[in-house]
Design a protein that fits this description.
Elements lengths: L5 E5 L3 H12 L3 E5 L15 E2 L3 H5 L4 E4 L4 H11 L8 E4 L5 H13 L3 E4 L2 E2 L2 H5 L3 E6 L5 H11 E8 L6 H30 L3 H8 L7 H11 L10 H17 L5 H18 L21
């Protein structure tokens, strides 16, 4: 499908704004809405129409993309948008919403005759801005040709996980992937904090494991943010990471799986937010290792 699409993007935070910008750059007509309008208005310079309401943003759209904070926010926003929706519109739901919330959102889609895609993305600010996200998607094959140009605009590849978006197979895979991301982030922060506490140069630790089986690019990326004080702007904010951690813990609990690391990561992120790091990159969970929210002697 090569013709120009009209795409309504609801939610223009770190990820949504980048996705909307890349959809517009791909030549599609984009309408954007955000609860805080100041986050949507800069997209006018990229050719997007900034809508005053969710209903206005989705009116006449071929595809609606939601990238909001969580499941309840998405459900509320789409209920507001409902009068502007037309039967047969494709809804690509990219919020990390959790398994139960996906079922609720799919129910809303059925009630309005929408083609529902469970479509979370893997990646943070930089890949989002570069159009290099990985899209995890489940949805009806008959509507894939319609949504594919949108996925191609925001991502470098699409991983199809199923044909029924309501089953949440894409969200399930996203939660598993995010559990690894959160564990690696928490381990990075704790290792750096322990090095600080024991008087070990963190570069000695990084050099010790460099090039071996314990080394990983993600460790260096997140450690660099902490050591070089580059925690803002966030690639993925502490508060959002905490929300995802709690979704992961809840999903595991509902399926008989105890996730001690994810639960501890959620608490670390909550402590970091309480110390004023909520809007910083999730690597700022490092500060949760210290009683006063900062290393001694700082």
């Amino acid at each position: 499908m090569n013709e120009t699409l009209t795409v309504g993007v609801l939610g223009t935070g770190i990820m949504g704004a980048a996705m909307a910008r890349n959809i517009a750059r791909a030549g599609h007509a984009v309408r954007v809405w955000n609860r805080s309008s100041g986050k949507a208005e800069p997209l006018a310079a990229d050719g997007a129409h900034v809508a005053a309401t969710p209903e206005e943003a989705v009116r006449g759209a071929d595809v609606v993309l939601t990238m909001l904070y969580d499941g309840p926010a998405t459900l509320d926003t789409m209920r507001q948008a409902a009068p502007g929706l037309r039967e047969g519109t494709v809804w690509a739901q990219s919020t990390t919403a959790g398994i139960d919330a996906v079922a609720d959102l799919a129910g809303l889609a059925r009630a309005h005759g929408l083609a529902f895609f469970d479509a979370p993305v893997l990646g943070t600010r930089a890949p989002a801005e570069a159009g290099q996200l990985t899209v995890l998607a489940a949805g009806p094959p008959a509507a894939r040709d319609t949504v594919r140009p949108v996925f191609d605009a925001v991502g470098s590849r699409t991983v199809w996980t199923g044909e029924d978006g309501a089953a949440g197979s894409a969200t399930r895979l996203k939660l598993v992937a995010n559990s690894w991301v959160l564990a690696a982030t928490a381990a990075t922060g704790e290792s750096l904090a322990l090095a600080r506490g024991l008087g070990v140069d963190p570069q000695d630790f990084l050099g010790l494991i460099a090039g071996g089986p314990l080394d990983m690019g993600y460790l260096h990326a997140k450690a660099g943010l902490v050591l070089e004080n580059r925690l803002s702007p966030a690639a993925f904010a502490v508060t959002t990471a905490e929300k995802d951690a709690r979704l992961i813990v809840a999903a595991g609990r509902a399926h008989g799986v105890r996730l001690d690391v994810a639960e501890a990561a959620a608490e670390r992120l909550a402590r970091a937010a309480a110390h004023g790091h909520g809007d910083e990159d999730m690597a700022a969970a490092y500060f949760a290792s210290f009683a006063e929210g900062r290393p001694p002697a700082e």
